[in-house]
Write a structure and sequence with these properties.
Length: 91
């Protein structure tokens, strides 16, 4: 899957779920009450759920390298993701 853009970068918006910070389609606010994600995000979650559950052997997500903050790639590695840097090296 390649990160595309419609109002925002699709896969970058899924980072909290990939990093294990969120599950499902709702979050808990500061008062401890569940808040449902917006309609656009729920649509993205549904589409990506379908797309990510279809592969039987390999799932590849192509995202911008600068979409990740310090330590987030280490979290993904700890969650058994293989990270490959496809940027061209300066020659």
């Amino acid at each position: 899957m390649l990160d595309s853009y419609y109002y925002d970068h699709h896969l970058s918006e899924l980072k909290p779920w990939l990093l294990g910070q969120k599950t499902g389609g709702s979050t808990v606010n500061r008062k401890g009450k569940p808040v449902v994600e917006g309609a656009r995000m729920l649509g993205r979650l549904k589409l990506h759920y379908v797309a990510m559950t279809r592969p039987t052997h390999l799932l590849c997500l192509a995202m911008r390298w600068d979409a990740f903050a310090d330590g987030e790639l280490d979290i993904l590695k700890a969650r058994d993701w293989t990270i490959i840097d496809c940027r061209r090296s300066a020659e």
